[in-house]
């Protein structure tokens, strides 16, 4: 077992026969070092292959090339792993630009803000990448007030929080694409099962269905909608009501787990119903459910570019910019055509 | 918008009416500072609430309090998210001990080693946490040869790589518990569907079933086993063969996705078959499949303690230690009793 031989400030100093402080000055403040001494130190640095450490470089440049990213606790959740997939893309995109991602733990907004404060005091981060934006998000206000560079994956859902850079996936475009896809298959009785009103993401996804139904001249009034939380068993109950009430031939759903509830309710009632979900989760893959895939790697790459622009190391100025990316429709077995015998138009 | 007021080395120096170097000496080499000057600088530090930055502390202590962790690229996978759940636990455990996790990107062993080298040269990490250990793993050899502190989540699968600290989940104990559970329900015709021979994790999980079957005096010869890769559609084909060949009343499976293949094959053939999976994934939850949950948060906590011991900041010495944690049996709807009419013993 051989030890790693690292070239240090001390070994450069010994080689150049100067003090440690002189080597440090040669790197960080060369104008205070005598020219012949500077030349000798630089020769030693080159000869030994010395690389100033990140910490030394950071003290010099005042940039750590590190961005902070919060992870919640280990949870058991079937609700997709968009955040986990995003952080893979973020680590990759950052590395390509010489940046690293430092993780910290936070299980809610307040804990995340406490960590922002601690990390900014002690860890010299250059900025933050946030996920899971929501109405009345105190995190973006906190960072904006302190002029800390950051970007959010997820748009601001209140107008007064809308001044920072963000990247998001266009949920409305996704459900609009799903609705048009079902219409092209021959469906006209297309219902929607979504989350309760008031969530930014949920309301956005519902709007894609309702606006497309209006464009197509199809019925999308309250009777054609139900709401549920994201638990499949609750979605199944809500779907059962919706199926009995209007007898849709297809249901556009706010998520894959909600879509699974519709599939189960349809099976219980012996109905053939086309279903689309959202997120391209393992659940949708296993269930053979048509769904919408978020372009996660691309979102991460663009988020990184936006925060680097805030920091000032990416051209294009520090003005906040936004990117809204369309999801991709993934067609699977639940994209069935309507039964020709029951295919009446409207309700 | 107000700017964040940070107390710096410079502002302490100005307040104490000394040079920046003197403040630095007061923090890092107090014995070279005159006592009355030292007292004045320490008073200014206290009054202004100055916190030496992480970079400054790091130059002083030679410890960054940062651990490296590799993430692969964004992939679409239904094969569970154990690694993603582990990193949540790791971030939490590290934070509780004043450590942070720095992510880097690597899509294979060679890329991970390139990053080890780069991070050790430039980023001053204290150590690494590795996942996905496998036969002939070059990463652990590379780190061991360089005396770099690290821990693996996943045991070394070759004897010659067995000298480093690791934490793992006891796969054999898990499948043994599943086999005993099925036996307690009345099953005696218990088959096994696993991965091809040669993978450490797969062979370990198979051994728990075969040794328990032997203890119970039940048949576990080659006819009662099939192998498949982890794709549900391939598992379904292998399961169909296994069900026709020996007509088991229960199948212990190496993973949830393989278990789903058994459920689908049983349904196609109109058979009632109890099924157990492994990993407590979203797929198992949705399918109502009995499975084995890995204690991820606990594994992360113990992995952190072991790497801190290697670094020398945790009591207990730097000798490598290992922790093998049992998974927990999660009983769901696929834990059916055998059909009394076809419940013959053995084959």
From TrEMBL, chains A, B:
Instruction: Please give the PROSITE patterns that the UniProt record associates with this protein.
Output: HTH_LACI_2 (PS50932)
- Which Gene3D superfamilies has this protein been placed in? 3.40.50.2300, lambda repressor-like DNA-binding domains (1.10.260.40)
Signal peptide position in this chain? none
Q: Which UniProt keywords are listed?
A: DNA-binding, Transcription, Transcription regulation
Q: Which domain of life is it from?
A: Bacteria
Residues of the HTH lacI-type domain: 7-61
Q: Which SUPFAM superfamilies match?
A: lambda repressor-like DNA-binding domains, Periplasmic binding protein-like I
The answer, when asked if Transcription is one of the entry's keywords, is yes
The identity of this protein, by name, is Substrate-binding domain-containing protein
Highest classification ranks of the organism:
Bacteria, Bacillati, Actinomycetota, Actinomycetes, Micrococcales
């Amino acid at each position: 077992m051989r030890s790693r031989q690292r070239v240090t400030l001390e070994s450069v100093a010994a080689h150049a026969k100067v003090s440690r402080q002189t080597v440090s000055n040669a790197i960080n403040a060369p104008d205070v070092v005598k020219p012949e001494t500077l030349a000798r130190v630089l020769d030693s640095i080159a000869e030994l292959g010395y690389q100033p450490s990140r910490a030394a470089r950071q003290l010099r440049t005042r940039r750590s090339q590190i961005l902070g990213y919060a992870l919640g606790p280990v949870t058991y959740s079937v609700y997709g792993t968009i955040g986990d997939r995003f952080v893979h893309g973020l680590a990759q995109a950052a590395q390509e630009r010489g940046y690293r991602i430092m993780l910290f733990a936070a299980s809610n907004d307040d804990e995340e803000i406490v960590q922002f404060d601690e990390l900014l005091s002690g860890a010299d981060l250059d900025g933050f990448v946030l996920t899971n934006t929501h109405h009345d998000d105190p995190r973006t206000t906190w960072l904006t007030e302190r002029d800390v560079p950051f970007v959010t994956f997820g748009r601001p859902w209140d107008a007064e929080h809308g001044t920072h850079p963000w990247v998001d996936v266009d949920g409305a475009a996704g459900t609009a694409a799903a609705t048009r896809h079902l219409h092209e298959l021959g469906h006209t009785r297309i219902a929607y099962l979504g989350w309760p009103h008031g969530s930014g993401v949920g309301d956005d996804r519902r709007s894609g269905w309702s606006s497309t139904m209006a464009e197509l001249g199809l019925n999308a009034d309250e009777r054609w909608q139900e709401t549920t939380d994201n638990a499949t068993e609750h979605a199944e109950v809500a779907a059962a009501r919706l199926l009995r009430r209007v007898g849709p031939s297809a249901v556009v759903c706010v998520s894959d787990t909600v879509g699974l509830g519709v599939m189960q309710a349809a099976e219980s009632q012996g109905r053939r119903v086309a279903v689309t979900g959202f997120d391209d989760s393992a659940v949708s893959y296993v269930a053979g459910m048509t769904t919408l895939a978020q372009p996660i790697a691309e979102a991460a790459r663009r988020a990184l570019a936006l925060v680097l622009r805030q920091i000032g190391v990416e051209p294009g100025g520090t003005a906040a910019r936004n990117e809204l990316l369309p999801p991709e429709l993934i067609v699977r077995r639940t994209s069935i055509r309507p039964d020709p015998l029951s295919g009446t138009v409207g309700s």
